[in-house]
Write a structure and sequence with these properties.
95 residues, elongated, mainly alpha, Eukaryotic RPB6 RNA polymerase subunit, single chain, 4 helices
Length: 95
């Protein structure tokens, strides 16, 4: 693949500092198992994240949505675990 540059990403995230933050967030998600939105090939998560941004399929708003969904799922799991812990023990559970 041709060399990827910051200039390839700037049309989608204009501020270079915001670009770095978005790419880092996405690279972290990818390294933790998130599905890539472009073909990964042998590229590392940081390069894949920049390629997603350059392709226009990833930006800060999409990252915020992904983070919000992950937080909601984690909160749901915690609430379910808490509810299970609140169930009184039955007579067969005590020894």
């Amino acid at each position: 693949m041709a060399r990827l540059t910051v200039e390839d990403c700037l049309p989608f995230i204009e501020n270079r500092f915001d670009l770095v933050l978005a790419a880092a967030r996405r690279a972290r998600q990818l390294s933790q198992g998130a599905k890539a939105l472009v073909e990964e090939g042998d590229d590392k998560p940081t390069v894949v994240a920049l390629r997603e941004i350059a392709a226009g399929v990833m930006n800060a708003e999409v990252l915020d949505e992904i983070d919000a969904k992950e937080r909601a799922a984690e909160e749901f799991e915690l609430a379910a675990e808490f509810a299970a812990l609140q169930q009184p023990l039955s007579d067969t559970d005590t020894r």
